[in-house]
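Q: What residues go here?
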């Protein structure tokens, strides 16, 4: 199992899912209409390291963070 956490204004509690790659995570998250609107806008971190490759292999206990865009000043 891996943990997926949703930061900032997404307002969703963390979930645990079975996934072998980031692509598997994306497929699962797109099944949720609330998440589908966020996914194209968000960055993704794997264990606090930014990742972009959907082919990234995951292992048991990994933590995926979904990071929405933010503005600061």
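A:
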């Amino acid at each position: 199992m891996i943990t997926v956490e949703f930061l900032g204004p997404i307002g969703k509690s963390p979930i645990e899912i079975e996934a072998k790659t980031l692509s598997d995570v994306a497929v699962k998250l797109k099944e949720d209409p609330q998440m589908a609107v966020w996914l194209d806008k968000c960055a993704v971190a794997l264990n606090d390291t930014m990742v972009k490759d959907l082919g990234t292999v995951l292992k048991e206990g990994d933590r995926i963070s979904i990071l929405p865009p933010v503005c600061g000043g």
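A: Context that may help when evaluating the design: The chain is about 20% helix and 25% strand. Residues 2-67 form a domain with the Ubiquitin-like (UB roll) fold (CATH 3.10.20.30).
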